[in-house]
Amino acid sequence: MKAERSPEVRLQEPTRVSALASSSASGSIPNIDLSNEINTSNRSETRDSEIRQLAYKLYEERGRTEGQTLQDWLDAEAIIRQGGKVAA
Description:
By secondary structure, the chain is mainly α. The protein has a domain at 35-88. The chain contains 3 helices and no strands. The chain has helices at 17-23, 35-61, 69-81. α2 packs across α3 (69-81). The protein is flat and about 65 Å long.
């Protein structure tokens, strides 16, 4: 019985922007709206910052004892997910 070979996969070189511009019919590169990705990134950074601040407050409330970093983060994440906010 003869084993089947998988199809050969060939990697292509990344396409350069100048190559796209010269090959397009209109001579221009399509405009891509990245505002949603930027807004998502900003929300993620804000959320991480809130979690970090709250986790540190939980660490302080526990008397600054070491060894519970992950639990503090998870607890803070759960509080924020349930609508809790970090008090200024």
